[in-house]
Amino acid sequence: xxxxxxxxxxxxxxxxxxxxxxxxxxxxxxxxxxAGEAPGVPSAAPRQMSKPSSFSFDMKRWxxxxxxxxxxxLVLFVSLFLxxxxxxxxxxxxxxxxxxxxxxxxxxILCLAILAFLVSRAGFSEMPFxxxxxxxxxxxxxxxxxxxxxxxxxxxxxxxxxxSGIGWGFGAFVGLIAAIVAAAPLGVPAIRARxx
Length: 196
Hints:
Layout: E1 11-12, E2 18-19, H1 64-79, E3 83-88, E4 93-97, H2 104-123, H3 135-155, E5 166-168, H4 170-195
Antiparallel strand pairs: 1-2, 3-4, 3-5
């Protein structure tokens, strides 16, 4: 207590006397400034940093349609390396795989993208990236393109449509069925919705 102020923070009571800052009633001491901030400058509101979710693979995050799409896409991917077309020339036979048609490399890339996307969906509770459209639409487009290209590859045998001697290998049938199975769980509901 003093008859005069002795510096910043001293306050004058109703009795006319000056008191030090620590004796002021209901004094709330301001928080100490964060390193790098100027004292007396109000700090910005604390930011809440969203912690990225860690990867933990759980197939239960997939819907039934996504499970079927994942299995069908994986089988289609494997079928690209199996014999799709065979040619018997008497003494033996030769075969080519599903990548014989150059456009089937697009199917190869789309299969990898679909599988990577589905693994991400099963691994993260919240996807670490934003897509330009809904997940189901994206999968429908990718599996639809795969199905169309696979049907063309199945029908267009090497040597042309009328060329005899070239037959289908088992990989062509496996790939065709897998492409249709991968696209069906998303495609059939979309077709039904359009008809309504």
